[in-house]
Design brief:
Layout: H1 7-36, H2 51-68, H3 72-91, H4 98-101, H5 104-119, H6 126-131
Helix pairs in contact: 1-2, 1-5, 2-3, 3-5
Length: 135
């Protein structure tokens, strides 16, 4: 266990916040592309009430909740599952290796979100403000 006054014990919570915020910001772009055609137009148009439309809603609004750190644990768990489903539905049928089937980003998001579901939103989150020091 690290010394409470050590560099690592002071910076670990801050780095957790940075991981959550940057990951959520990047993830929101996938949903924004599907829902709003921003920051880039989607490769193909999909109805909002389709599987890809639902994924876009979860990506954008789930990412937004993670960005501000609201309901971080359940949202991160849901998004982890979303990325697992996305990997096995869209990428795994094209081969075993994530690099070759272009699924490495889905795998990485899946496990980062799984980590965030256990670690929580961190000290710079709305969860922390809502629940005091227990978040």
């Amino acid at each position: 266990m690290a010394n409470p006054g050590s560099f690592y014990s002071q910076w670990s919570p801050r780095v957790l916040n940075n991981l959550r915020i940057v990951t959520a910001f990047l993830f929101m772009q996938h949903g924004g592309q599907k829902l709003f055609g921003f920051p880039a137009p989607p490769q193909a148009a999909h109805p909002l009430l389709s599987l890809i439309g639902a994924a876009g809603i979860l990506e954008f609004f789930g990412g937004l909740l993670l960005l501000v750190g609201l309901f971080s644990r359940p949202v991160a768990f849901l998004l982890s599952g979303l990325m697992a489903v996305a990997y096995f539905m869209a990428h795994a049928p094209h081969g075993f290796w994530p690099l070759l089937n272009r699924g490495e980003l889905a795998v990485l998001y899946c496990f980062v979100f799984l980590y965030l579901s256990a670690a929580g939103g961190g000290c710079w989150s709305l969860d922390r403000l809502r629940q005091g020091d227990s978040a």
